[in-house]
Structure formats: structure tokens, C-alpha cells
């Protein structure tokens, strides 16, 4: 059975956290995915999760935190019930400019994640679109990351795959066996939802989620996280997106 979670980054502009979690529970969502800023106040996060009855099986964790305090990070994630940790982003000024640079970055990811993996966590990388821009040498950074180490898995963000101009179905098939979690993010038709950065509620954009769901099942992926980077109404986004996935 596929677990459907909600990335709490979607609701960063809709405080307080406790109200967000209760709204998600009322919608029918039972799990969430955390992100770095929430780890700054773990007491509030644990309290809100307990009050709402939601679980947090996965979380985005900054690479700098993993490298600077692996033991503390492991302890904190364990307290929160997290089982999967994903490094979520690389700032534009820090992105490699060639294949050797991407290989070095992938090796850095592997080393940073070793303590987590040894502690029993699933560990991986969460993509945006820049990993799908070919290097001057003709390599795809996403391929370099995916092949760096068997224990470095992927949280494949299908909205960003679409935005990068790649076929989500072919991309899922390409990385089958490496995908531990899928980010379910929809793209609005050209010119629509400009006030929401061109993203759409899941099932209300251009992506064929029925076909994607079947392909993800074939690839053995059973953990979905719905996401919208800038919804005007997070309750609308959560309820409509959850309904779409329930209908598949």
C-alpha cells in the first residue's frame, strides 16, 4: 500500500505549525515530511505531531548539518520517528560546473550519509531541475549522483523532472531501483497559476498521474510526498491533491 505524505515546506507561509498539522489530519493525511527549518525547534515539532496524531517518516536535512553534527542529527531524527533523510538542495553558487565537480559532490554526499546509513536510515538526494542540465563533457549530473554508491538513493521530484524538460515516465524507469520516495508535484499549464510560481494542485496540472502511479508501482516505489512550492491556499492544495492520489 502506498503511503501518502505531505511536505511541510508547502505550509511554511501558513503558521502556526499545530494548526497546519490538524488541517492535514482533518483532510485525511496521516504522514508528513519535514524540512530543515523545522529542526530548529524540535520541541514544538514533536508536540504538534503528537497532538495531531501524524507521523514524520521522512525529512529534508541540510548537507552542512549532516557534516557538522552527524551524531546530533541522528539522535534528533530518531526522536522524531524519521526513517528516511534526504539532502534537498544545492545553492546556485555552490553547483559544480563540470563532470569532475559533480563526481566530487556525489562522493561528498556518500561520505556525509555514511553515519546515517550505518544507523539504519534510508538516505538520499532530492532533485530539482539543475541536475538534469548536461555538463560540458556530456554527462547528466543526476546520473552521476545516482551511480555514486548503492546506498545513496533518490527522492525523485517529478514536478522538477517535468520542468527540466524530461519525461517523468522515462526518468522513473531509468532510475528504478534507486527511488526510495517520489515527490508528487504538478505543473500548471503554460501561463496559468503565475501567482503560485506555475505549480498546480496534484491532478490539476499537465502531468498524467495515473500513468506515473502505474510506473512507480512497477518500480517498487510505495512512498509518495505531495508538494507545491508556493500555494495560495494550503488547505485547498492538500485536500485536492490527496483526493487525486486516493482516486488512482
TrEMBL record:
SUPFAM superfamilies: Xylose isomerase-like. The lineage of its organism: Bacteria, Pseudomonadati, Pseudomonadota, Alphaproteobacteria, Rhodobacterales. GO terms for molecular function: isomerase activity. Residues 23-229 form the Xylose isomerase-like TIM barrel domain. The keyword tRNA processing does not apply. Keywords: Isomerase. This is Sugar phosphate isomerase/epimerase.
